[in-house]
Specification:
The complex is a heterodimer of chains A (about 350) and B (about 230). Chain A has 9 helices and 21 strands. With about 350 residues, chain A is an alpha+beta fold. Chain A is globular and about 75 Å long. Chain A has helices at about 40-50, 95-100, 110-120, 140-150, 170-185, 195-200, 220-225, 230-235, 330-335; strands at about 1-10, 15-25, 30-35, 55-60, 65, 70-75, 80-85, 155-160, 190-195, 205-210, 215-220, 240-250, 255-260, 260-265, 275-280, 285, 295-310, 315-320, 325-330, 345-350, 355. The longest helix of chain A has 18 residues, at about 170-185. Chain A has 2 domains: about 1-225, Rossmann fold (3-Layer(aba) Sandwich); about 240-355, RNA polymerase II/Efflux pump adaptor protein, barrel-sandwich hybrid domain (OB fold (Dihydrolipoamide Acetyltransferase, E2P), Beta Barrel), CATH 2.40.50.100. In chain A, strand 10 and strand 11 form a beta hairpin. With about 230 residues, chain B is mostly helical. Chain B has one domain: MetI-like fold (Orthogonal Bundle), CATH 1.10.3720.10. The longest helix of chain B has about 35 residues, at about 190-225. The radius of gyration of chain B is 20 Å and the shape is globular. Chain B starts with a helix and ends with a helix. The chains are: A alpha+beta (about 350), B mainly alpha (about 230). Chains A and B meet through strand 7 of A and helix 6, helix 7 and helix 11 of B.
């Protein structure tokens, strides 16, 4: 049983042409990640039936929701889907409770009241039951909207930026509650996000969408650490993405020339001599003093160029024959007395140097 | 003061306003939802009574509903009497004459409902009809009140159509505005002044209601933004 999608639809810039399949017989979350305008919301709306794709087909298990060739189109009301719109508007003439109960009209009154009470409780909305949406904060509104979508227990969830309006502690709570609900219900979800943490932790599958095309799909960590193309690397925000030239390669080691420096990578050499290397900033370790030789590790001597504070961490830009960014704690900055102009050694495991073929 | 005429006018205006709400809602909804390429022509037809001399509308209605014409014969067979010079005739004429005053505020109100709310209702598995009842109607209350009051007030003030299609039968088709005309013709200036004042006050009162409804709209919306 799977949701099978193969559709095309024009976008303001470019064209959505997405083909993929997601299992729906076990609980699971697939995260759609990509720059704005890449067609993520359009894809959700097409699955929901709010827009009709130009061509292709959408199948949900045995049911055909859309088939361009046969002219078949199931309207949104007939699809067992819960859609959370981006900045979902609540019904302004209804209270919080009435909003949550909106999709439960066919339920018995006790069931409905019970469900509303549980969602109020789950999303910490106690005391707001009879308030109009206009009197709520942005985060409260988003939680009510989520409860409204989840309350009718749809087997397929389509969530567009579900946690964007929430402050960090509430975000963790709501993320956990939604994840638990999905497990309990055995539901499947397709979640659009701009948030790296959501992309890395909320789903089992990460799909990278750009300009209407699915560029890569895989386990989130896999996609983040091994982007399939420089475009994906840019989208997932790999700090170090550098053009490189293969100098030599053995069975499992590749020696690359990057700028004026050299790097050792593990893996197969790309066929052409040119490629990109991607290195996540977290995987660059900084040491004081001169580099000692080691075969499994890259040890590069360089000079600190600048420090960019990022929350509790600091991004250190080093010139070691090529620009290299490391992400270290504030404590490490103090202990190693890292400051602009200081001499420093960057240590990178060969397995952390990821090769991306040039297109 | 001709109380018969006042009572007749109020009965006619109320019935017209109620029926116009019922006719106007689906019509306004259709105007917003339809993608028919000739829709603009239908909109122009609906708006015609705003600019058309009422006597023109009355003339065509008289002709169309004459007992020897198909439409008139059909009406006479169903209702039992021909349409001209009856209260039913006045009602049909009033509905047509005030149609734009009901349809236009309703269409504006329906169009003002956030389309995402409508789609959200669909996604919560409510049909188009249930969505209309649960979302569009409650969010269009101001538009409905405006439509009701405007068509009521406009019907109260009609003269030419009533004269053409209704004639001037006391208690049946002699409305307040016709009565005023009669009194002036009879040089009964005191009664005419009374009737004129009543019509002026009523019209002012109803237009004040419309203005009030639409004045408070902006403030309510600003309140909702906070």
């Amino acid at each position: 049983m799977a949701l099978t999608v193969d559709i095309e639809y024009p976008l303001p810039q470019g064209r959505l042409a997405a083909a993929f399949s997601l299992p729906i017989d076990r609980p699971g979350v697939a995260v759609l990640f990509g720059p704005s305008g890449s067609g993520k919301s359009t894809l959700l709306h097409a699955l929901a039936g709010l827009i009709r794709p130009e061509t292709g087909s959408i199948r949900f298990g045995e049911t055909v929701w859309f088939d361009g060739a046969q002219g078949r189109f199931v309207p949104p009301q007939k699809r067992p889907v819960g859609l959370l719109f981006q900045e979902s508007p609540l019904f302004p003439h209804l209270t919080v409770s009435e909003n949550i109960a909106y999709g439960l009209r066919r339920w018995s009154a006790p069931d409905r009241e019970d469900a509303v009470r549980r969602w109020i409780d789950r999303f910490r909305l106690t005391g707001k039951e009879d308030r109009p949406p206009a009197s709520l904060s942005g985060g409260e509104r988003q939680r009510v909207a989520l409860a409204q979508v989840l309350a009718p227990r749809p087997p397929l969830l389509l969530l567009d930026e579900p946690f964007s309006a929430l402050d960090p502690p509430t975000r963790a709570l709501v993320r956990g509650e939604v994840r638990r609900w999905i497990e309990e219900e055995g539901a499947s979800a397709l979640v659009v996000t701009h948030d790296v943490v959501d992309a890395l932790t909320f789903g089992e599958t990460l799909m990278i969408l750009s300009a209407g095309k699915l560029l890569q799909r895989g386990a989130p960590l896999e996609v983040f650490s091994r982007p399939a193309s420089s475009e994906v690397a840019q989208i997932v925000g790999v700090e170090n993405l550098l053009p490189a030239q293969v100098v030599a390669s053995s069975e499992e080691r590749v020696i690359l020339e990057v700028g004026k420096g050299r790097l050792i990578a593990v893996g197969e050499a790309p066929h052409e001599g040119r490629c990109f290397v991607s290195i996540r900033a977290e995987e660059v370790i900084l040491e004081r003093g001169h580099p000692a030789q080691s075969s499994a590790r890259n040890r590069l001597l360089g000079f600190v160029q600048k420090l960019i504070p990022v929350g509790v961490q600091v991004r250190v830009v080093i010139d070691c024959g090529f620009p290299l960014t490391a992400l270290v704690t504030r404590q490490a900055v103090e202990e190693l007395s890292i400051q602009p102009g200081a001499e420093i050694t960057a240590v990178i495991k060969a397995s952390s140097v990821h090769l991306i073929p040039t297109e | 003061m001709n109380w018969d005429a006042l009572w007749l006018s109020i009965r006619l205006a109320s019935l017209t306003a109620v029926l116009l709400l019922l006719i106007g809602m689906p019509l306004a909804h259709w105007i917003n939802a339809s993608r028919w390429r000739w829709k603009f022509l239908a909109e122009a037809v609906i708006a015609l009574p705003i600019v058309l001399p009422p006597t023109v509308l009355g003339f065509y209605l008289l002709i169309a509903f004459a007992p020897n014409r198909p439409l008139g014969a059909f009406y006479a067979r169903i209702v039992g009497s021909p349409l001209p010079f009856t209260f039913g005739g006045l009602l049909v004429a009033s509905i047509l004459y005030s149609l734009p005053f009901a349809v236009q505020p309703l269409a504006a109100a329906f169009a003002g409902v956030d389309p995402r709310l409508i789609e959200n209702s669909w996604m919560l598995r409510e049909s188009r009809w249930r969505t209309f009842v649960r979302v569009i109607l409650p969010l269009s209350r101001r538009g409905m009140m405006t439509a009701f009051v405007l068509s009521f007030a406009h019907t109260l003030g009609e003269f030419g159509v009533v004269l053409m299609i209704g004639g001037n039968i006391p208690g049946v088709t002699r409305t307040l505005s016709i009565d005023l005309y009669d009194q002036v013709q009879a040089l009964n200036n005191r009664a005419a002044a009374e009737t004129a004042l009543v019509l002026l006050i009523l019209s002012f009162f109803f237009l004040s209601i419309v203005a009030y409804i639409n004045r408070s709209k902006g403030e309510r919306l600003r309140g909702a933004d906070r």
